[in-house]
Amino acid sequence: xxxxxxxxxxxxxxxxxxxxxxxxxxxxxxxxxxxxxxxxxxxxxxxxxxxxxxxxxxxxxxxxxxxxxxxxxxxxxxxxxxxxxxxxxxxxxxxxxxxxxxxxxxxxxxxxxxxxxxxxxx
Length: 122
Known about the structure:
By secondary structure, the chain is of the alpha+beta class.
């Protein structure tokens, strides 16, 4: 399937369809996402941005959608978004597995869940 990755509305319709049909894994295995994911990791030198804020270094292995994919499917392939004040913000942020699980599911970390908790399971 060809998607114009520069057209947020077209991307949004495609991702929403995958969400509705419970096939979101297809997004995470698409060449669109894999290429963009690699690009973002390289741009940030594979550094976890949350650890970096705390003065630590840990290798980033996941690219996190700041505005969650299920709520904002049109931003699925966008590196940035414009906030309510008109400022450009980072939409795709490299993080390590620990930081990603904390951001996505802080309540589960208290219960020491070891299984994968996100769509991006590899």
